[in-house]
UniProtKB/TrEMBL annotation:
GO terms for cellular component: DASH complex; mitotic spindle polar microtubule; mitotic spindle pole body. GO terms for biological process: mitotic sister chromatid biorientation. It holds the Pfam family DASH_Dam1. The keyword Nucleus applies. Keywords: Centromere, Chromosome, Chromosome partition, Cytoplasm, Cytoskeleton, Kinetochore, Microtubule, Nucleus. It is found in: Chromosome, Centromere, Kinetochore; Cytoplasm, Cytoskeleton, Spindle; Nucleus. Belongs to the DASH complex DAM1 family. The keyword rRNA-binding does not apply. This is DASH complex subunit DAM1.
Length: 273
């Protein structure tokens, strides 16, 4: 006996809604309803209208998004400009009118101080020149007095010297004594030159400092300020080696000019220029 034929399983159809287009097209209540695919025309027209409306709304949203992007960029630029303005223009420590007034007053005070310093320097130079001229006059007076004393001593001792050797013997007159004021002025003058020398001559070695002062004094207050090395030697304190060392330092500092063009080494006092 043949097996019974099985009916294939089918999914039940969804119940047609009362407002469906198919029911509308087949309803007897609407005899003028379009047949076939004619019912799609009004539906597609309505869909077209809704699609255009949707496109218009989407375009409006896009325009709004573009406007927001433009606004955000402009607003961000404005915020950046305000921040840069705060960092560069709105500076609480920037100079104001009072600052320029104070700067002008400070410049005037500096100019007045510089003028006073210049006047004091000129007065010091004039005083120094006056003191040098006074010292030169005192030295000249001392030399004149020494020559007079020397002449008197020579006249009084001529007989005794002639009786022993037959040749007059010259005797040096006594060295002119300086007053306390002249000694102080001479010490200040010498100190000005010693302060320009290396440290060992400025007090590191007291003996060498005294030797340097003696050498400077012998050069400065020599009649023509030109001496030989042997003129400055005064043993036992001022030996030849000490005098030579002091002269080398003075020559290096260009306070003294060394000359040997005549065959004899001479030292000329030049001073500080």
């Amino acid at each position: 006996m043949p097996a019974p034929t099985q009916t294939p399983h089918r999914t039940p159809l969804k119940r047609v809604s009362q407002g469906s287009l198919f029911r509308l097209s087949r309803s007897n209540a609407f005899p003028d309803a379009p047949h076939g695919l004619g019912f799609l025309e009004p539906a597609m027209a309505e869909l077209l209208d809704e699609t255009e409306t949707l496109h218009t709304n989407v375009q409006g949203m896009k325009n709004l998004s573009d406007s927001l992007a433009t606004f955000n960029e402009s607003f961000a630029s404005w915020l950046y400009v305000m921040e840069m303005n705060a960092l560069t223009v709105d500076w609480s420590q920037a100079p104001g009118d009072e600052s320029f007034i104070l700067a002008k007053q400070r410049a005037e005070r500096d100019a007045a101080a510089a003028m006073e310093a210049l006047q004091a320097q000129q007065a010091a130079k004039a005083h120094e020149a006056h003191m040098l001229s006074a010292i030169a006059v005192a030295d000249k007076t001392a030399i004149t007095e020494g020559d007079v004393t020397f002449a008197a001593n020579t006249t009084s001792a001529t007989g005794a010297s002639s009786s022993k050797t037959g040749v007059p013997v010259k005797k040096k007159g006594p060295k002119a004594k300086l007053t306390a004021k002249e000694k102080k002025e001479r010490s200040i003058e010498i100190e000005k030159f010693v302060s320009c020398l290396p440290l060992e001559f400025r007090g590191s070695d007291p003996t060498l400092r005294r030797n340097m002062e003696s050498v400077i004094e012998g050069l400065m207050y020599h009649p023509n300020q030109t001496v030989k090395l042997t003129d400055l030697i005064s043993p036992p304190d001022l030996s030849q080696a000490r005098v030579n060392k002091c002269l080398i330092a003075l020559v290096n500092r260009k306070v003294v000019l060394k000359e040997n063009s005549t065959g004899t080494v001479l030292y000329h006092w030049k001073g500080i220029s």
